[in-house]
Design goal:
Layout (H helix, E strand, L loop, with lengths): L1 E8 L3 H10 L1 H5 L8 E6 L2 E6 L4 H8 L5 H9 E9 L8
Antiparallel strand pairs: 1-3, 1-4, 2-3
């Protein structure tokens, strides 16, 4: 499954991006990290595109209260909006 995640950042984009880049092995557990894309919208908003996501593994990681990653994310992330991305055919005329 392909996802687009809108990240509402409470620290700063640069601080969040440094954190995001510091632990790609975590994302490799549930997505194809080689295809992950990040875009800065502004200093408090980013978009992350994830490919080949295993939703169950991602959910386990994000909902584990004992996860160091979840604790560290709380310092940088105010909230996330997660959207499923699907290929579609162009509209016909």
């Amino acid at each position: 499954m392909e996802l687009l995640v809108i990240v509402h950042i409470k620290s700063s984009y640069d601080s969040w991006k440094a954190f995001f880049d510091s632990d790609p092995a975590v994302r490799e557990e549930f997505a194809d990290e080689s295809r992950t894309r990040v875009a800065k919208v502004n200093d408090n908003l980013a978009m992350v595109q994830l490919f080949d996501v295993d939703m169950q593994k991602m959910s386990q990681m994000l909902n584990n209260p004992n996860s160091a990653t979840v604790e560290a994310m709380a310092e940088h992330v105010e909230s996330r909006e997660i959207y499923k991305v699907e290929k579609m055919n162009p509209p016909s005329q």
